[in-house]
Design brief:
By secondary structure, the protein is an alpha+beta fold. The chain has helices at 2-26, 28-34, 54-57, 74-79, 84-91, and strands at 61-65, 93-100, 105-112, 119-124, 130-133, 141-148, 154-160, 167-177, 180-188, 196-203. A hairpin with a 6-residue loop joins β7 and β8 (167-177).
Length: 204
């Protein structure tokens, strides 16, 4: 009788141990680390979010252009040989909207008083190449890569390889002070001579 009791206890303990091992081996958490399969979503969304520095998150929002603090766009228009209508559109830019996703993306919307003058660009912050329309609205595409700038903020490197006015452009978006956005740009079109640097300033 006593031996039968101990045998029953041993069988129960063995069954319990087997059950715990089975649960551990086939739970979603264990399998997600072993790479065998994953049957359930992660319990915490935050665990999948990449932590971005404040220098990037500070860029978010709608920014109004400070024309007095900004460099003139005339040299840029001259370099790109923009027609009169495009020059007027550039002069009527009111500001920009920036949307940064904490996970991955940087989105730029240029705000203008002209309905047809719309520039909307979205980039992955992991350096993946993205394609957009040329900002001068000429035929051909513009290719850009975005990432965290060494000195803070976001840097976008563009290339527009089509046509006679092919070239490159590098932009850095950053906030040197609260409620102030600066966009420092270097634009180069080899067919038109030396490149130029200019700064645009925006405020909230």
């Amino acid at each position: 009788m006593q031996a039968s009791y101990h045998q029953s206890i041993a069988i129960a303990l063995l069954a319990s141990l087997t059950l715990h091992i089975f649960i551990a081996l086939y739970s979603p958490t264990f399998l997600s680390f072993t790479g065998q399969r994953h049957t359930a979503p992660p319990t915490s969304v935050a665990s999948t979010v990449v932590s971005r520095p404040e220098s990037i998150l500070d860029l978010n929002g709608v920014w109004t252009k400070d024309k007095e603090a900004s460099d003139s766009m005339d040299p840029v228009c001259d370099l790109m040989q923009l027609p009169r209508l495009m020059r007027m559109a550039v002069g009527m830019i009111k500001g920009v909207e920036i949307i940064t996703d904490p996970n991955d993306s940087f989105q730029l919307n240029v705000l203008s008083g002209i309905m047809w003058f719309k520039i909307k660009e979205k980039y992955s912050l992991n350096g993946q190449e993205c394609r957009h329309r040329r900002r001068d609205f000429r035929r051909g595409d513009s290719f850009g890569r975005a990432g965290e700038a060494t000195e803070g903020g976001v840097e976008v490197r563009h290339s527009f390889p089509d046509g006679a006015l092919r070239g490159t452009m590098t932009e850095r978006f950053y906030c040197p002070h609260a409620n102030e956005l600066r966009v420092d740009t270097f634009l180069e079109v080899p067919a038109r001579g030396p490149g130029i640097s200019y700064r645009q300033v925006y405020r909230k």
